[in-house]
Amino acid sequence: MIVLNTDHVPGREVGEALGLVRGSTIRAKHLGKDLMAGLRTIFGGEVKEYTEMLVEARAESVRRMKAQAAELDADAIINVRFMTSQVMSGAAEMLAYGTAVKLKDKESFLGP
């Protein structure tokens, strides 16, 4: 499945917009990693535990968004965006959303 943050698929034409698709997950790190992250805020530097958590959350939210688009028999998802919010200390929601679309056949796009 094609997933893009642009409003079109280069070289293809959107035939039909199928609607909004989204995927979300809420992730938290276990207490040990949360404590390590707390120490990093004191000494500075990248909080790798939370970076890892958000990478995992982003991948899962995209997987769920793509699954919802597949249920609609979409060819692509365009205008993909991400949003995150803290739901409690040490836990964040990652939301991926976009527009599921059917693409026109290449033949009809190229003309006679």
Quick structural gist:
This protein has 112 residues and is of the alpha+beta class. It is 38% helix and 38% strand.
Please give a handful of descriptors for the protein shown.
112 residues; Translation Initiation Factor IF3; four-stranded mixed sheet; 3 helices; 38% helix; 38% strand
Your description of this structure?
It is a single chain. With 112 residues, this protein is an alpha+beta fold. The chain has one domain: Hypothetical protein apc22750. Chain B (Translation Initiation Factor IF3), CATH 3.30.110. Helices cover 38% and strands 38% of the residues. The protein contains three helices and four strands. The chain has a four-stranded mixed β-sheet with strand order 1-3-4-2. Strand 3 and strand 4 form a beta hairpin. The radius of gyration is 18 Å and the shape is elongated. The mean pLDDT is 85.
How is the secondary structure organized here?
Elements (H helix, E strand, L loop, with lengths): L1 E2 L10 E15 L2 H13 L4 H24 L4 E13 L2 E13 L2 H5 L2
- The sequence of SSEs as H and E is EEHHEEH
- Residue share in helix: 25-40%
Number of strands: 4
The end-to-end distance, rounded to whole angstroms, is 27 Å
| Radius of gyration, whole Å | 18 Å
With helices defined by DSSP (H or I, 4 residues minimum), what is the helix count?
3
Which CATH architecture?
Answer: 2-Layer Sandwich
Number of domains: 1
Shape: elongated
- Name of the CATH class: Alpha Beta
Kindly report the name of the CATH homologous superfamily: Hypothetical protein apc22750. Chain B
Tell me which oligomeric state these chains represent.
Answer: single chain
Helix and strand content put the structural class at alpha+beta
**Averaged pLDDT, please?**
85
Say what the CATH topology is.
Translation Initiation Factor IF3
β-sheet strand percentage: 35-45%
List low-confidence stretches.
none
Q: Main β-sheet, in a few words? A: 4 strands, mixed
Strand order of the largest sheet: 1-3-4-2
